[in-house]
Please model this.
Amino acid sequence: MREMRRYKQALTPAECDIVLGRNTSGVLAMTEEDGFPYAVPLSYVWKDGRAYFHWATAGRKLDAVHRDDRVSFCVIDQDEIVPGEYTTYFRSVIVFGRVRILGDPGEKRRAIEALSQKYRPGFPETMAAEIDGFWDRFCVAELSAEAVTGKQAKELMGKPV
Model:
């Protein structure tokens, strides 16, 4: 991986983990068959150094990762415009890695339950029925991180993430 030019503004691995854990959406970037980039906003859950997504069982994302499993995933944690300073106070994290579609039913179940708990917490009695009802109509993708980088505005340095 390429070294960050403004390395003094880099987030620590622990700070990157906090940012990835507390956010709900990011942009997954893949490569299309013709070589063009394809970036799509997605909901996700971050668990144990991996991002999980649910997709339809056919479509553009699935085609792209079957062709080339290398992706990047960007999460913007903060983007505050500061007009008087002609800048923004930003914080973001990018995950570089490879995506695989979970084929093992147990792995798929654990990942979709983690997604369900994040986006609809407190309803364990209905979660299983909902998952079972849609089981054959979705797949779950796992992004395993090979590198994670985060950066923030210099004005945010020293403040809690």
In short: The chain has four helices and seven strands. The two ends are 24 Å apart (CA to CA). Residues 105-119 form the longest helix (15 residues).
